[in-house]
Amino acid sequence: MVRLVSVCASLNDDELALLEQLANPTHFASGETLFTQGAEAHCVYNVTGGVIRLYKLLSDGRRQVVGFALPGDFLGLAMRDAYGFSADAIGDVAVCAFSRAAYTALVDAKPHLLKRLHEFATHELTLAHEQMLLLGRRTAEEKLICFLLGMQQRWARLGKPSVTVPLPMTRQDIADFLGLTIETVSRTFTRLAKEKTILIVPGGVRVMNPERMHAVAA
Amino acid sequence: MVRLVSVCASLNDDELALLEQLANPTHFASGETLFTQGAEAHCVYNVTGGVIRLYKLLSDGRRQVVGFALPGDFLGLAMRDAYGFSADAIGDVAVCAFSRAAYTALVDAKPHLLKRLHEFATHELTLAHEQMLLLGRRTAEEKLICFLLGMQQRWARLGKPSVTVPLPMTRQDIADFLGLTIETVSRTFTRLAKEKTILIVPGGVRVMNPERMHAVAA
DNA sequence: TTGCCGCATTGATCTGGATCAAATCCGCGG
DNA sequence: CCGCGGATTTGATCCAGATCAATGCGGCAA
Predict the structure, then answer these.
(1) Distance between CA atoms of residues A189 and A205, nearest Å
(2) pTM exceeds cut of 0.70
(3) Which of A178, A170, A25 shows the shortest CA–CA distance to A90?
């Protein structure tokens, strides 16, 4: 079983053993829904494999993707009784599910686990502020470039450093994450490729001119 | 001294006394800066009076306001070594400042204080997700209306329920919060006033048609 | 191999909100 | 009371990105 590296790095062996007793390894096929915004929050999840789309919907169908969960990520910080967003699998996904009751009890019993969770929440909040800046004030090109560099960095931290950034999500997902339309995402990718800033490859993008990209993301 | 109601509701009297020893009551005049994005984070703050603008800047001057801190709010969740955003006073502001060292030590010693902080962080994260939806997918009119209802709700929770929403920040601040320009904010307010959805009064706005507004915010 | 079908790209046109440009308004110091 | 300076409103025009509309491109089931 994949180590619950993200949340659990601060636990000792006894505690890890305890945690693994509570963990229910589960998997979801491509497109399956883990949970839906507004539903009662029964479980929290630690992602062990695959990518998950997290999103909010408006009643008329407009969608905002609030994040993509990668292996190691923890779903359950931003919830009280009900889930604040929906989550579904992009490709096949493996998670460890915990009942909320067990999770709550464990957190109450282990202050340093709580501390670790709080650090995560704090980090998420910082990222959320970055995303507000991106959504509110950046141009389409800047949005795309920041997104690519951000994904590259996240894959790198998972031990997959590469100039080729995997993009398992659809163009529509990217558009809904960046507050753009699918056409604008596509056109902007094409333009960046034409000027050799990136190279579009199946399933992702290869970073060809990181200097320019980092300059734009500034 | 104003009770540190927000963070400290879960503390007992001994702990509150301890906390008040650590608290440095401070105030800032209108426009003064509490701290700047990127600076080393020496202090955390609990707002006891006034309103604070929290914002991020791009190198070319584009600004995104990531929030407005009201009395009771806590500044210091979303930071590690350096402040992730800048903060300055809108009108005169009173805060309790805590050194980060003292804050860290106290939090380590008091798990239920940490738990309370974590609940706050979690709530902030939920609000941040809402704001992403607003910035990425809502129209100018929807943005303004959501903003007004949100401010009304926040004032109400502070014991100031009223159909008149105080807006001590400038139009530019509102624009930078909603990802709009000052002209669009002004025009949209004017339009809402013309159709009697709101009434613009000195220092704020009076909600005239809450039904319509809540329907739009849906 | 063929024919879908869902994604993605590309093109033409439109438009909400930005930008540029004046007025007004208003609080305040002299 | 007057004049100044910042904030706000209002008007005219522009444009980045949305919308509308084909077309292209795989992957895969039969």
Answers:
(1) 9
(2) yes
(3) A170
Task: For B49-58, write each residue's pLDDT tens digit.
Answer: 999 999 999 9
Nucleotides of C under 7 A from a protein CB: 7-12, 16-21, 27
Give the CA diameter of chain A: 56
Which of A133, A146, A176 is the best residue to mutate to test the B interface, defined by the most B CB atoms within 10 Å of its own CB?
Answer: A133
Identity at B87, one-letter amino acid code: A
Residue environment code for B176-195, b if the CB has 16+ CB neighbours within 10 A, otherwise e: bbbbbeeebbeebbeebeee
Q: Give the whole-angstrom CA distance, residue B172 versus residue B65.
A: 10
Q: Distance, in angstroms, between A177 CA and closest chain B CA? A: 8
Read off φ and ψ for residue A132, nearest 5 degrees: -60, -45
Query: What angle in degrees, to the nearest 10, is found between the helix axes of B111-137 and A171-178?
Result: 110
The spacing between the Cα labelled CA in A53 and the C1' in C8, in angstroms, equals 20
- Spatial contact of A51 and A61, defined as CB atoms under 8 Å apart: no
**The dihedral sign for the CA sequence A11, A16, A19, A24:** positive
Q: Which of A46, A4, A10 is nearest to A27 (CA)?
A: A46
As beta bridge partners, residue A98 has A44
Q: Chain B: nearest CA to A70, how far in angstroms?
A: 18
Mean pLDDT of A135-149: 98
Q: Which range (A116-130, A184-198, B8-22, B60-74) has the least confidence?
A: B8-22
Taking the CA of residue A119 and the C1' sugar atom of nucleotide C5, their distance in angstroms comes to: 45
Q: How confident is the model at residue B107 (pLDDT cuts 50, 70, 90)?
A: confident
